[in-house]
Automatic annotation (TrEMBL):
<dbReference type="InterPro" id="IPR036779">
    <property type="entry name" value="LysM_dom_sf"/>
</dbReference>
<dbReference type="InterPro" id="IPR038765">
    <property type="entry name" value="Papain-like_cys_pep_sf"/>
</dbReference>
<feature type="domain" description="NlpC/P60">
    <location>
        <begin position="24"/>
        <end position="149"/>
    </location>
</feature>
<dbReference type="InterPro" id="IPR052062">
    <property type="entry name" value="Murein_DD/LD_carboxypeptidase"/>
</dbReference>
<keyword id="KW-0732">Signal</keyword>
<protein>
    <submittedName>
        <fullName>LysM peptidoglycan-binding domain-containing protein</fullName>
    </submittedName>
</protein>
<keyword id="KW-0378">Hydrolase</keyword>
<dbReference type="InterPro" id="IPR018392">
    <property type="entry name" value="LysM"/>
</dbReference>
<comment type="similarity">
    <text>Belongs to the peptidase C40 family.</text>
</comment>
<keyword id="KW-0677">Repeat</keyword>
<dbReference type="Pfam" id="PF00877">
    <property type="entry name" value="NLPC_P60"/>
</dbReference>
<keyword id="KW-0788">Thiol protease</keyword>
<keyword id="KW-0645">Protease</keyword>
<feature type="domain" description="LysM">
    <location>
        <begin position="235"/>
        <end position="278"/>
    </location>
</feature>
<dbReference type="Pfam" id="PF01476">
    <property type="entry name" value="LysM"/>
</dbReference>
<dbReference type="InterPro" id="IPR000064">
    <property type="entry name" value="NLP_P60_dom"/>
</dbReference>
<feature type="domain" description="LysM">
    <location>
        <begin position="169"/>
        <end position="212"/>
    </location>
</feature>
Length: 278
Protein backbone atom coordinates (compact mmCIF):
# COMPACT_ATOMS: atom_id res chain seq x y z
CA UNK A 1 0.00 0.00 0.00
CA UNK A 2 2.82 2.42 0.87
CA UNK A 3 4.54 1.73 -2.48
CA UNK A 4 1.31 2.43 -4.37
CA UNK A 5 0.78 5.75 -2.57
CA UNK A 6 4.40 6.80 -3.22
CA UNK A 7 4.04 5.94 -6.92
CA UNK A 8 0.95 8.12 -7.23
CA UNK A 9 2.72 11.04 -5.53
CA UNK A 10 5.74 10.77 -7.82
CA UNK A 11 3.50 10.60 -10.91
CA UNK A 12 1.89 13.88 -9.85
CA UNK A 13 5.33 15.54 -9.75
CA UNK A 14 5.56 15.87 -5.95
CA UNK A 15 7.74 13.79 -3.64
CA UNK A 16 7.02 13.71 0.09
CA UNK A 17 9.70 11.65 1.87
CA UNK A 18 9.05 10.88 5.53
CA UNK A 19 11.21 10.54 8.66
CA UNK A 20 9.97 6.97 9.02
CA UNK A 21 11.38 6.06 5.58
CA UNK A 22 14.78 7.54 6.47
CA UNK A 23 14.78 5.68 9.80
CA UNK A 24 13.81 2.42 8.11
CA UNK A 25 16.63 2.71 5.55
CA UNK A 26 19.33 3.36 8.16
CA UNK A 27 17.79 0.82 10.54
CA UNK A 28 18.10 -1.85 7.82
CA UNK A 29 21.71 -0.79 7.19
CA UNK A 30 22.55 -1.10 10.90
CA UNK A 31 21.03 -4.59 11.16
CA UNK A 32 22.82 -5.63 7.95
CA UNK A 33 26.13 -4.45 9.44
CA UNK A 34 25.51 -6.25 12.73
CA UNK A 35 24.56 -9.60 11.22
CA UNK A 36 27.98 -9.78 9.56
CA UNK A 37 29.22 -10.82 13.02
CA UNK A 38 26.64 -13.52 13.82
CA UNK A 39 28.21 -16.29 15.88
CA UNK A 40 31.15 -14.20 17.14
CA UNK A 41 31.81 -15.21 20.77
CA UNK A 42 30.86 -13.17 23.83
CA UNK A 43 33.70 -11.80 25.97
CA UNK A 44 33.00 -9.35 28.79
CA UNK A 45 35.07 -6.18 28.46
CA UNK A 46 35.93 -6.79 24.82
CA UNK A 47 37.42 -3.61 23.33
CA UNK A 48 35.36 -1.53 20.93
CA UNK A 49 36.69 -2.20 17.44
CA UNK A 50 37.73 -5.77 18.25
CA UNK A 51 35.53 -7.81 15.91
CA UNK A 52 36.75 -11.25 16.99
CA UNK A 53 34.59 -11.10 20.14
CA UNK A 54 32.07 -8.72 21.72
CA UNK A 55 30.21 -7.89 24.88
CA UNK A 56 26.75 -6.35 24.56
CA UNK A 57 27.82 -2.70 24.38
CA UNK A 58 31.09 -3.11 22.50
CA UNK A 59 28.83 -4.66 19.84
CA UNK A 60 26.22 -1.86 19.79
CA UNK A 61 28.92 0.85 19.98
CA UNK A 62 30.89 -0.64 17.09
CA UNK A 63 27.89 -1.30 14.81
CA UNK A 64 26.47 2.22 15.24
CA UNK A 65 29.93 3.78 14.79
CA UNK A 66 30.05 2.26 11.28
CA UNK A 67 27.11 4.53 10.45
CA UNK A 68 28.46 7.73 11.99
CA UNK A 69 26.63 7.41 15.34
CA UNK A 70 28.71 7.64 18.53
CA UNK A 71 27.39 5.86 21.63
CA UNK A 72 28.59 5.75 25.27
CA UNK A 73 30.46 2.54 26.15
CA UNK A 74 28.12 1.28 28.92
CA UNK A 75 24.52 0.08 28.76
CA UNK A 76 23.49 2.66 31.40
CA UNK A 77 25.17 5.39 29.35
CA UNK A 78 23.50 4.26 26.15
CA UNK A 79 20.12 4.15 27.90
CA UNK A 80 20.48 7.85 28.74
CA UNK A 81 21.00 9.15 25.17
CA UNK A 82 18.66 9.53 22.23
CA UNK A 83 14.88 9.70 22.46
CA UNK A 84 12.73 7.37 24.60
CA UNK A 85 10.45 5.16 22.50
CA UNK A 86 7.61 2.92 23.65
CA UNK A 87 7.60 -0.80 23.02
CA UNK A 88 4.61 -0.36 20.69
CA UNK A 89 6.52 2.10 18.48
CA UNK A 90 9.86 0.29 18.18
CA UNK A 91 11.56 0.38 14.77
CA UNK A 92 14.60 -1.37 13.34
CA UNK A 93 17.77 0.21 14.71
CA UNK A 94 16.30 1.28 18.07
CA UNK A 95 18.29 0.28 21.16
CA UNK A 96 16.55 -1.95 23.74
CA UNK A 97 17.71 -2.28 27.36
CA UNK A 98 17.37 -4.86 30.10
CA UNK A 99 17.96 -5.40 33.83
CA UNK A 100 19.01 -9.05 33.93
CA UNK A 101 19.68 -9.07 37.69
CA UNK A 102 16.38 -7.45 38.76
CA UNK A 103 18.35 -4.95 40.85
CA UNK A 104 17.10 -1.74 39.24
CA UNK A 105 20.26 -1.26 37.15
CA UNK A 106 20.35 -1.62 33.36
CA UNK A 107 23.12 -4.05 32.39
CA UNK A 108 22.33 -5.27 28.86
CA UNK A 109 21.71 -3.63 25.49
CA UNK A 110 20.61 -4.93 22.10
CA UNK A 111 19.47 -3.60 18.71
CA UNK A 112 15.82 -4.02 17.81
CA UNK A 113 15.63 -5.92 14.50
CA UNK A 114 11.87 -5.81 13.85
CA UNK A 115 9.13 -8.42 14.30
CA UNK A 116 9.83 -8.71 18.03
CA UNK A 117 13.48 -9.71 17.52
CA UNK A 118 16.72 -8.13 18.67
CA UNK A 119 20.31 -8.53 17.49
CA UNK A 120 22.71 -8.62 20.43
CA UNK A 121 25.90 -10.08 21.89
CA UNK A 122 24.95 -12.25 24.84
CA UNK A 123 26.78 -14.62 27.14
CA UNK A 124 24.97 -17.65 25.67
CA UNK A 125 25.56 -17.92 21.94
CA UNK A 126 27.52 -14.71 21.34
CA UNK A 127 26.18 -12.45 18.58
CA UNK A 128 22.73 -13.69 17.62
CA UNK A 129 19.12 -12.80 16.89
CA UNK A 130 16.75 -13.58 19.75
CA UNK A 131 13.19 -12.89 20.92
CA UNK A 132 13.38 -9.39 22.46
CA UNK A 133 10.35 -10.00 24.69
CA UNK A 134 10.45 -13.73 25.34
CA UNK A 135 8.21 -14.59 28.33
CA UNK A 136 10.86 -17.06 29.45
CA UNK A 137 13.66 -14.51 29.86
CA UNK A 138 13.99 -11.15 28.09
CA UNK A 139 10.36 -10.07 28.43
CA UNK A 140 10.50 -10.00 32.23
CA UNK A 141 13.82 -8.11 32.20
CA UNK A 142 12.96 -5.45 29.60
CA UNK A 143 13.29 -1.86 30.92
CA UNK A 144 13.26 0.75 28.14
CA UNK A 145 14.25 1.65 24.57
CA UNK A 146 16.02 4.59 22.94
CA UNK A 147 16.06 5.92 19.36
CA UNK A 148 19.46 7.32 18.44
CA UNK A 149 18.82 7.49 14.68
CA UNK A 150 17.81 11.07 13.91
CA UNK A 151 14.63 11.31 11.86
CA UNK A 152 14.20 13.69 8.95
CA UNK A 153 11.60 16.49 9.22
CA UNK A 154 8.09 15.20 8.65
CA UNK A 155 7.38 17.36 5.59
CA UNK A 156 9.54 17.98 2.56
CA UNK A 157 8.24 18.97 -0.88
CA UNK A 158 9.86 19.16 -4.32
CA UNK A 159 8.02 20.19 -7.48
CA UNK A 160 8.71 18.40 -10.78
CA UNK A 161 9.51 21.66 -12.56
CA UNK A 162 12.23 22.69 -10.12
CA UNK A 163 13.63 19.17 -10.21
CA UNK A 164 14.21 19.20 -13.96
CA UNK A 165 15.67 22.72 -14.00
CA UNK A 166 18.15 22.21 -11.18
CA UNK A 167 21.79 21.53 -12.08
CA UNK A 168 22.76 17.95 -11.31
CA UNK A 169 25.66 16.90 -9.07
CA UNK A 170 27.29 13.55 -8.57
CA UNK A 171 29.15 11.95 -5.68
CA UNK A 172 31.71 9.15 -5.91
CA UNK A 173 31.11 6.59 -3.15
CA UNK A 174 34.08 6.14 -0.79
CA UNK A 175 34.89 3.12 1.38
CA UNK A 176 32.70 3.01 4.51
CA UNK A 177 30.07 5.45 3.21
CA UNK A 178 26.34 4.76 3.51
CA UNK A 179 23.38 6.16 1.62
CA UNK A 180 22.21 7.81 4.86
CA UNK A 181 25.58 9.51 5.45
CA UNK A 182 25.66 10.80 1.86
CA UNK A 183 22.09 12.12 2.16
CA UNK A 184 23.06 14.13 5.27
CA UNK A 185 26.19 15.51 3.55
CA UNK A 186 24.16 16.90 0.64
CA UNK A 187 21.13 17.89 2.75
CA UNK A 188 18.75 15.59 0.93
CA UNK A 189 17.01 12.32 1.84
CA UNK A 190 17.66 8.60 1.37
CA UNK A 191 14.36 8.31 -0.53
CA UNK A 192 15.39 11.10 -2.90
CA UNK A 193 18.78 9.50 -3.63
CA UNK A 194 17.11 6.15 -4.28
CA UNK A 195 14.69 7.78 -6.75
CA UNK A 196 17.41 9.80 -8.53
CA UNK A 197 19.60 6.73 -9.02
CA UNK A 198 16.93 4.07 -9.51
CA UNK A 199 18.06 2.17 -6.40
CA UNK A 200 15.86 -0.59 -4.99
CA UNK A 201 17.93 -0.95 -1.79
CA UNK A 202 20.41 1.05 0.30
CA UNK A 203 23.42 -1.03 -0.80
CA UNK A 204 26.34 0.86 -2.39
CA UNK A 205 29.68 -0.07 -3.95
CA UNK A 206 32.99 1.78 -3.69
CA UNK A 207 33.52 4.02 -6.73
CA UNK A 208 29.84 4.17 -7.63
CA UNK A 209 28.76 7.56 -9.05
CA UNK A 210 25.57 8.84 -7.40
CA UNK A 211 23.38 11.71 -8.51
CA UNK A 212 22.89 13.77 -5.36
CA UNK A 213 21.21 17.11 -6.01
CA UNK A 214 19.01 17.22 -9.10
CA UNK A 215 15.88 17.02 -6.97
CA UNK A 216 17.18 18.05 -3.57
CA UNK A 217 14.11 18.91 -1.44
CA UNK A 218 13.57 22.18 0.36
CA UNK A 219 12.87 21.17 3.92
CA UNK A 220 10.37 23.08 6.01
CA UNK A 221 11.62 23.76 9.55
CA UNK A 222 9.91 21.72 12.24
CA UNK A 223 7.69 23.72 14.62
CA UNK A 224 9.40 24.79 17.82
CA UNK A 225 8.35 23.00 20.96
CA UNK A 226 6.92 25.08 23.75
CA UNK A 227 9.32 25.53 26.66
CA UNK A 228 8.31 23.50 29.72
CA UNK A 229 6.64 25.46 32.52
CA UNK A 230 8.96 26.40 35.38
CA UNK A 231 8.15 25.04 38.82
CA UNK A 232 8.02 27.31 41.83
CA UNK A 233 10.23 25.12 44.02
CA UNK A 234 13.15 22.84 43.16
CA UNK A 235 13.30 19.50 44.95
CA UNK A 236 16.66 17.85 45.54
CA UNK A 237 17.85 14.39 46.55
CA UNK A 238 21.13 13.47 48.24
CA UNK A 239 22.73 10.49 46.54
CA UNK A 240 23.31 7.47 48.78
CA UNK A 241 25.82 4.69 48.31
CA UNK A 242 24.56 2.18 45.74
CA UNK A 243 22.22 4.66 44.04
CA UNK A 244 22.22 5.00 40.25
CA UNK A 245 20.65 7.66 38.08
CA UNK A 246 18.26 5.00 36.81
CA UNK A 247 17.09 3.92 40.30
CA UNK A 248 16.56 7.56 41.35
CA UNK A 249 14.55 8.21 38.18
CA UNK A 250 12.31 5.22 38.94
CA UNK A 251 11.85 6.26 42.58
CA UNK A 252 10.74 9.79 41.72
CA UNK A 253 8.95 8.87 38.48
CA UNK A 254 11.08 11.03 36.20
CA UNK A 255 13.32 10.10 33.26
CA UNK A 256 17.10 9.71 33.27
CA UNK A 257 17.17 12.30 30.46
CA UNK A 258 15.35 14.79 32.73
CA UNK A 259 17.78 14.26 35.62
CA UNK A 260 20.81 14.69 33.35
CA UNK A 261 19.37 17.86 31.82
CA UNK A 262 18.35 19.67 35.04
CA UNK A 263 21.66 18.75 36.70
CA UNK A 264 23.76 19.51 33.59
CA UNK A 265 25.34 16.04 33.75
CA UNK A 266 27.53 14.90 30.85
CA UNK A 267 27.34 11.24 31.89
CA UNK A 268 25.21 9.05 34.15
CA UNK A 269 27.98 8.77 36.78
CA UNK A 270 27.02 10.04 40.27
CA UNK A 271 28.61 9.81 43.73
CA UNK A 272 27.42 9.45 47.32
CA UNK A 273 26.59 12.83 48.92
CA UNK A 274 25.91 14.51 45.56
CA UNK A 275 22.84 16.80 45.47
CA UNK A 276 20.56 15.91 42.55
CA UNK A 277 17.76 18.22 41.40
CA UNK A 278 14.55 16.36 40.74
Amino acid sequence: MKKKVMSLIIAAGVLVPSGDLVHASLGDDIINTGDNYLGKPYRYGSAVGNTSSFDCTSFTTYVFSRHGITLPRTSIGQASVGTPVSKANLQKGDLVFYDTNFDGVINHAGIYAGNGKMLNAQSTGGVKFTDAFSPYYWGARYVTARRVIKEAPKTAVVSSSSATSAKGQTHKVQKGETLYGISKKYKTTVANLQKLNGLKSTSLRVGQALKVSATAPVLKPAPKKAAPAKTAAVKTYTVKRGDSLWSISKRYKVSVDHLMKVNKLKSSSIYAGQKIKL
